[in-house]
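Query structure, 492 tokens:
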């Protein structure tokens, strides 16, 4: 994974959550067949999103709205909440890693760089990937990890080990839910790359499993730990933007070349999702940070989403210009909107905007905007306008607000790794919470909320923009303010 000079990484850099394996080979490997083709038999198409709303969208707007309302009604919880539950204190955090492709292999050195973290087990059906991971672990001075490479379900054996505290899942989206479920049932905490699941029924099942097993299931969203995002978060909580009104987040990243590259992803798993859904396939990079600004699930909650999508033209045009006759991609029909736009309203009446576009030419942007009664911040490029600091309709210099940097960035001003250092900051903080027995910065309720726009935006687009109710995954506990990413520095 490339190291970016700043958090605004370029269009050809690994986005941080592209979980395909590396660049070796030109033919689809065993993993591309086993770990990506599962959707064909797993009901992951339009009719199998599980919320009811996405499936009902084909029946018309009224049916979609009714189904979404049913999905939004929180089922009665059978177990205690995981809100406020700390990790068991661990002097040494023992982790397992499932998925050793672009993302997993890029994060492995960062785990190894954190004191008190031991990589105990690794899993990937591609044996060369596992062997490379073992070399990295032993080169860091740790014992060789156990290796799980015997087929596409060998991860289940990893999850049954008795010497793991945390399992990190960095595989294609199709497998996130099944692997997170196995992790929780195996008695380990789970950290899942984005999204945690593509289906509403599975989001609810993860909430229930987390509560039943008393293990956390977290969306490891690195963008929540970007320097700009954490600075804006602290300023928002200090009232510098006044009463918060609106925010915007996105994943606008031209991935056409990478999605058609036969070696970047192992198999066409990411491109194939563009043949299945019309909605926002990857909302969490933009949604996570602005949800933090608005204290979503910590004093406010998102209640409904209305989405619209452009025609799906970009991937077909790129294929026409760049792919030779006979390429397997010519058998694909793309339905995913080139750009999706979603408006999300909160219980307090505030409005969030989400965008997704990986199919057309444009500069990279997560938008990352926040506005209130005293001013606004906008990223890409970063700029700020807050009273009384700015006047005359002229943007201010955001670099002059470095005093508001989060304590993590003040302690680690030049962190290792890619994406401007946010990957390392995220992992350092997560492992710190383990080692000190602290409550993690986010939990399964955040993971479910941030991933819910995947099925619900699809349902809304199919229903011509009709709003879809967003479930209250906290079952009413969102009303109580609590800490999150803007947590105080530990005293020990």
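Result returned for the query:
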């Amino acid at each position: 994974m490339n190291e970016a000079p700043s958090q605004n990484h370029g269009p050809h850099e690994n986005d941080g959550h592209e979980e395909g394996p590396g660049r070796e080979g030109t033919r689809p490997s065993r993993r591309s067949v086993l770990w990506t083709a599962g959707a064909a038999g797993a009901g992951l198409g339009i009719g199998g999103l599980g919320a009811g709303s996405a499936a009902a969208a084909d029946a018309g707007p009224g049916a979609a709205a009714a189904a979404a309302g049913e999905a939004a009604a929180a089922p009665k919880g059978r177990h205690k909440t995981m809100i406020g539950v700390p990790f068991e204190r661990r002097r040494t955090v023992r982790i397992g890693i499932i998925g050793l492709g672009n993302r997993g292999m890029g994060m492995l050195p960062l785990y190894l760089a954190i004191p008190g973290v031991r990589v105990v087990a690794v899993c990937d059906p591609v044996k060369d990937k596992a062997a490379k991971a073992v070399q990295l672990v032993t080169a860091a001075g740790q014992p060789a990890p156990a290796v799980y490479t015997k087929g596409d379900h060998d991860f289940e054996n990893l999850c049954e080990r008795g010497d793991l505290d945390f399992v990190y899942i960095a595989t294609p989206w199709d497998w996130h839910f099944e692997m997170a479920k196995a992790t929780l049932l195996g008695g380990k905490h789970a950290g899942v790359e984005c999204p945690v699941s593509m289906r509403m029924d599975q989001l609810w099942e993860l909430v229930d499993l987390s509560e039943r097993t008393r293990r956390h299931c977290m969306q490891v969203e690195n963008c929540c730990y970007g320097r700009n995002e954490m600075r804006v978060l602290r300023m928002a909580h200090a009232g510098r933007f006044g009463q918060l009104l609106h925010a915007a987040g996105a994943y606008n990243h031209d991935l056409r070349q990478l999605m058609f590259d036969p070696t970047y992803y192992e198999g066409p798993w990411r491109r194939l999702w563009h043949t299945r859904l019309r909605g926002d396939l990857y909302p969490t990079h933009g949604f996570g940070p602005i949800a933090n600004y608005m204290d979503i699930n910590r004093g406010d909650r998102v209640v409904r989403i209305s989405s619209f999508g452009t025609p799906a033209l970009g991937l077909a045009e790129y294929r026409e210009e760049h792919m030779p006759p006979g390429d397997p991609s010519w058998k694909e029909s793309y339905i995913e909107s080139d750009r999706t736009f979603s408006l999300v309203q909160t219980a307090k009446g505030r409005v969030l905007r989400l965008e997704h576009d990986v199919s057309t030419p444009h500069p990279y942007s997560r938008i990352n905007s926040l506005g209130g009664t005293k001013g606004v911040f906008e990223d890409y490029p970063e700029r700020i306008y807050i009273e009384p600091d700015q006047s005359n309709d002229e943007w201010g210099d955001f670099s002059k607000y470095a005093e508001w940097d989060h304590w993590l960035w003040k302690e680690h001003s030049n962190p290792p790794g890619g994406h401007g250092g946010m990957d390392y900051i995220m992992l350092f903080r997560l492992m710190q919470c383990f080692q000190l027995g602290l409550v993690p910065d986010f939990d399964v309720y955040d993971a479910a909320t941030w991933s819910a726009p995947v099925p619900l935006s699809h349902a809304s687009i199919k229903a011509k923009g009709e709003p879809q109710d967003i479930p209250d995954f906290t079952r009413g506990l969102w009303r109580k303010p609590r800490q999150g990413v803007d947590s105080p520095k530990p005293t020990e």
